[in-house]
Amino acid sequence: MTLPETMFGIALTGHGGPEKMEWRDDLPTPVPANGDVVIQVAAAGVNNTDINTRIGWYSKGDAEADDASWSGTALRFPFIQGADVCGHIVAVGNGVDASRIGERVLIEPCLREADGEPLKTPWYFGSECDGGFAQFTRVASRYAHTIQSDLTDVEMASFPCSYSTAENMLTRARLAKGETVLVTGASGGVGSATVQLALARGVRVIAVTSASKAQILTDLGAQKTLDRSDDFVAELGENSVDLVVDLVAGDKWPSLLSVLRPGGRYAVSGAIGGPIVELDVRTLYLKDLSFFGCTVLEPEVFANLIQRIERQEIKPLVATTFPLREIAAAQQEFTQKGHVGKIVLTVP
What percent of the chain has pLDDT over 70? Predict the structure, then answer.
């Protein structure tokens, strides 16, 4: 395949509202560096990370500050977002076997290598480098994972970011068969992925969601659901849970530590309910709790996820799809949190 010199895609021009996302058809088509592959994008998922980066949520000061990115470094605008990518390899760089051309792949979003060089600090695909909201994208070959599955491209694009985040939390927190895990924000992309990946480990899952979405989580296999407004301690009892996987934080956060048993673990990768919480340090040390802040994927996580998909241990949850050009409408629906699972963009 001869690649065109230019391509279409969504360029993020700065921090701010949806108006900062511009459809363009004159973007330069990526050229593979040593060790790279170029992928024709078929579908790309919508994530909190995309919106948080656009609005500058990651900054601990002003949204325009130099730390308003996933890695805490300044972003260079314009660039192309999009962490969840399913597509096909159409070109390879030096050092990559040409037989890879034509492979259907999922992109691992946490990168430790770029432009043929190791990175001192890991990057996030679609943040520190261009991502998948475009006709073509490029990445180091090691992060383009071949996958054998009958699932559609849209279904496949629901996996990379959410499911690898969930798998990473469960891996780092060492969730083991027979334990009990409480999952907050269980109806979202990462939350519903966590429910499935936890159940695949043979544990008891308690899912926190809204009443309107409880049945969907029960159908996934959650043994118990709690409403977000419930008193978690009254419903579960103190010292009743081995692991809390938290995607919400917010003002109910202290009760999450109350339901953890002594020696329990707490893993977090989101704070949609508010990032500032109240911690009684005595609870932390008197109960011998372990905290896991989870962002960078452990090296084995994505390969393990690919295997779980291929073994059909987990299934995709696609709430709805939008054409790439309608990304603003897709993100608006995403922020309303009325869906369960993932919103996916189709790329013509």
Answer: 96
